[in-house]
Amino acid sequence: AGMQKRLPKENAKANRGSRIQNTWKQLTSMSRGSILQILGLLWSHSVIGFGYFVLLSWVPTFLSSQVGMSSPRMLGLLSAVPFLTTAVLACFVGNIADYLIVKRKWAVSATRRLMMVFSTLGPALGLAMLAMTPTQATFAPLYALIALTVSMGFQAFNYPGFHAYVQDVAGPSGNAGLLLSVTNTGGVIFGAVGNLLTGVMVEKTGTFASVFWSSSALYVLSFFVWCTIMTGEELK
């Protein structure tokens, strides 16, 4: 009886071990194109993490120290609007992507690429605008809000672009969760590094301009990486 009770646990361990071995075997036997796609996804998610975490962590400081916002209530409001914009737009752009695929018969890979064009060049534009914020002008708060909203609003295209692409190329293998976990790890690490670098750069230069220009350049590079490497083919 004791032996029979232990068997289910032993079988479960054996199954987990088999799944891990199969996953590792798949990763080590992938084609060069698949490996490049994984590296491209890792890079893209890292850039997403860098831009997102830097803005999430430093927007209030930027608005108070560079734009002259002193009211905590206004700081909270202006800091929240760009992220709320992302949440609202995500619902619409997701429907647009589905419409292009289902109704307009666009290729899935072409749809994902279009979404990624917006999700890379859009934030790049917004961050470049932030870098050029006229901090001494009376309209600086409004300008900064518009630039921040552009930077974050276009992030909504990541959901029908990057995140959906991960599931597309993972195919029926069941490794979409693992793949997204790996790329998300890169995003979190790069985001944490971005926060550290932001502190150093702001302390050294006295402004956020270099931070925003650097982040904008990363998004532009991510655009070129996506257009060059991401073929839409299933990982094999």
Helix content: over 70%
Q: State the secondary-structure class.
A: mainly alpha
Can you say what the CATH homologous superfamily is? Answer: MFS general substrate transporter like domains
Q: Tell me, what's the shape?
A: globular
Subcellular location: Membrane
Membrane topology: Multi-pass membrane protein
Main location: membrane
Keywords: Membrane, Transmembrane, Transmembrane helix
Short description:
With 236 residues, the chain is mostly helical.
Descriptive overview:
- By secondary structure, the chain is mostly helical.
- The protein has a single domain (31-229), classed as Growth Hormone, Chain: A.
- Helix content is 82%, strand content 0%.
- The protein is built from 8 helices and no strands.
- The chain has helices at residues 2-28, 32-65, 72-102, 108-131, 140-153, 159-170, 176-205, 209-229.
- Helix 3 runs antiparallel to helix 4 (108-131), helix 3 runs parallel beside helix 5 and helix 4 packs antiparallel against helix 8.
- The radius of gyration is 21 Å and the shape is globular.
- It starts with a helix and ends in a 7-residue tail after the last helix.
- The mean pLDDT is 90.
- This is Major facilitator superfamily (MFS) profile domain-containing protein.
- It is found in: Membrane.
- It comes from Pycnococcus provasolii.
- Keywords: Membrane, Transmembrane, Transmembrane helix.
- The chain crosses the membrane at residues 35-55, 75-102, 114-132, 138-157, 178-202, 208-229.
